[in-house]
Amino acid sequence: MSKRTPLIAGNWKMYKTCGESVKSAQLLKSLVDGVTGTDIMIAPTFTSLQPVFNAIKGSRIDLGGQNLHWETEGAFTGEISGDILKSAGCSFVIIGHSERRQYFGETDETVNKKIKAALACGLKPIFCIGESDAERDSNLTFSVLDKQVQAGLKGLVSDDLKDLVLAYEPIWAIGTGKTATSDQAQEVHTFLRASIAKQFDDPLAQSLRILYGGSVKPGNTAELMSMPDIDGALVGGASLDAETFSQIVNY
Ligand code: PGA
After folding, report:
1. Is this structure's pTM higher than 0.90?
2. Distance from residue 243's CA to the centre of ligand 1 (Å)
3. pLDDT for 82-136, tens place per residue?
4. Of 12, 27, 155, 215, which has fewest CB within 10 angstroms of its CB?
5. Does domain 7-249 have CATH number 3.30.160.40?
6. Domain extents in the chain
7. Which of 7, 8, 11 should be mutated for ligand 1, with most atoms under 8 A from CB?
């Protein structure tokens, strides 16, 4: 049995109006009422953060942002800072999601700055990494992931990373219905834990939560979660429906 508390995190991406988000959060709150021993997080759009925070108050559901800027404030139209996320009730923030890397020009360097900014203001980063289809086919999975981890955590020391969560999300499995098999995911998670041990130290590697993400649904969660190095899930599509997401939480 892992001593790491499982985390089931829902990334709502650019879905749901404010009203829809609140309704969904209220329903989820009632559906996960009896849950113990699993941490739960949802990341709605920015405008829904505060109202969703009010809706989940008193439950074990935590709130997360989907992105942040690395500066604390300034003339950065359209951006949001860690402190602003915190003031809306966030305790987590997703950083470096492959959609941000692919469509919004995020690089390992900006991801690194964002992780530092999140940690500096007391937000728990969910640091996303993952290889593409082509990289996997060319046997580059491990080298790509190793580079992402090293660059993303550059300049940080073990003590800084107690609240960090790593999320392995193979790009070919996101929103495609194509899940990595539990063996494929476990193989990567073992590699990542070893990579963290090498870059930092073994106690951190052992305590670090590593989530799997990519087409997670109620039907494949238990199998994924039975693997010793899979500590939770980052769920996109299947987190949008409260009932479905609660089934994942209750894997
Ligand atoms: P998915 O997305 O569950 O829809 O594949 C996962 C993610 O993007 O975090």
Report:
1. yes
2. 17
3. 999 999 999 999 999 999 999 999 999 999 999 999 999 999 999 999 999 999 9
4. 155
5. no
6. 7-249
7. 11
